[in-house]
Write a structure and sequence with these properties.
The protein is built from four helices and no strands. It is mainly alpha-helical. It has two domains: about 1-45, no CATH class; about 50-123.
């Protein structure tokens, strides 16, 4: 499996999920309006003040988040290079191990950001 096939699968699944989300939101809004609850029809708007407040509350340090993700992604690439020098399986194009190492290292960056943010919010 090459990167083009993987990217195509991600794009297709993301498009399907987005389409279903938009369609279900539309039908729910239409049902709310048909039942006569015009004052509650704005609940499903994406740009409500509640959504903005939640985003600001949880995304206080975007530079820290993306810095940690980039740092751990780079560490993942370094690990892949070091492992490829000693193990020839990493040089094969059909191996999924390099993808796993990269995604696990990026996930560690996100988890570390979550831990740091939780400690900041509790303090």
């Amino acid at each position: 499996m090459n990167i083009g096939e993987l990217l195509m699968a991600v794009v297709v699944f993301f498009s399907i999920i987005t389409f279903v989300k938009i369609l279900s939101s539309h039908f729910l809004k239409r049902k709310i309006i048909k039942t006569g609850h015009f004052d509650r029809a704005e609940i499903l708007d994406q740009n409500t003040e509640i959504e903005v407040k939640k985003q600001v509350e949880y995304d206080q340090y975007p530079a820290l988040k993306w810095g940690l993700v980039a740092f751990f992604g780079g560490l993942g690439f370094i690990c892949m290079e070091l492992l490829a020098a000693s193990n020839p399986i990493f040089l094969r194009y059909d191996s999924a191990m390099p993808y796993g190492i990269f995604f696990v290292s990026v996930a560690i960056g996100f988890l570390l950001y979550y831990v740091v943010l939780n400690k900041k919010m509790k303090a």
